[in-house]
Write a structure and sequence with these properties.
about 5% helix, Porin, about 270 residues, twelve-stranded antiparallel beta sheet, mainly beta, 12 strands, 1 helix
Length: about 270
């Protein structure tokens, strides 16, 4: 039975990967219905997500992140839940250092290793049939440290070197999800969401003709709405496997394993 479930899960996730998907730094949205015990309790999770999106500040940039996080959540009655997350993520920005005019650059893309982020969220669920329900959620995340990368080159016939900082990266997102329960307790869910994210950019030395390093500014996501879809598979003994895809202008996907703490035996 478990083997059939995993095969079914893989097929569904591949479909989701092909047709849906933007992840944010906060990690997966997860199913609309909370995973905590009905009488109230704790659940925890670990997750991984690949995030890709388009940002702009007069020019367009594609950003990418690989995120790993852990979560602790508390909820009750299968109707509500609040959660917190802590994790790490890297940052890549395509063509951040693309040059023009009399300026050259030693590289094109901004890249930095993992920084720590935190996230908080809440969800509320309303079942209107035994196997159907609808939920709403809101979550936000913030990076506690700056991302940094160096570039050098020639500008107006003179050698330069500068460090670009991406500071105060944060996002907030909210959405509505419809959930259906299938065979073996498998939950499928999908819905729309809205999303806003921004960060400050600041070069140690402004270089004319060097895109993001030309001066201080703010970058933000280009499109503020998208769609998401996912699947939650019970693995037994309180464990669940969650896979999710999101799409705005770029596709993102993630996976998480959660554990719901059971009542203690007297």
């Amino acid at each position: 039975m478990i083997e059939k479930i995993l095969k079914f899960t893989t097929i569904v996730f591949l479909i989701l990967f092909l047709i849906s998907g933007t992840a944010a730094a906060g990690g997966l949205f997860g199913p609309p219905q909370p995973l905590s015990r009905k009488d109230g309790g704790l659940n925890t999770a670990i997750g991984y997500a690949h995030h890709e999106n388009k940002f702009e500040n007069g020019e367009e940039y594609v950003i990418r992140q690989k995120q790993i996080y852990s979560q602790a959540a508390w909820g009750a009655s299968n109707l509500w839940e609040v959660y917190g997350r802590i994790g790490i993520a890297d940052l890549e920005i395509d063509d951040a250092f693309r040059s023009s005019g009399s300026t050259t650059s030693s590289r094109l893309d901004f890249e930095d290793r993992e920084n720590i982020f935190g996230a908080l969220g809440a969800k509320v669920f309303y079942p209107f049939r035994k196997t159907l329900g609808i939920g709403i959620f809101i979550q936000g995340s913030y990076f506690f440290s700056d991302f940094r990368d160096n570039v050098s080159g020639i500008s107006n016939g003179r050698f330069y070197t500068t460090e670009l900082k991406v500071k105060n990266l944060w996002d907030i997102e909210s959405g509505i999800g419809l959930q259906a329960v299938g065979p073996c307790g498998i939950k499928l869910y999908a819905g729309p969401y809205v999303y806003y994210s921004e960060a400050d950019v600041s070069p140690s030395r402004s270089i004319a003709g060097l895109r993001l390093a030309a001066g201080e500014g703010t970058i933000k996501n280009r499109r503020e709405a998208g769609g998401f879809a996912g699947i939650l598979v019970p693995l037994g003994k309180g464990f669940h496997l969650n896979m999710e895809g999101r799409y705005s202008e770029k596709f993102s996907a993630g996976i998480a394993v959660s554990y719901t703490y059971q009542n203690r035996r007297p």
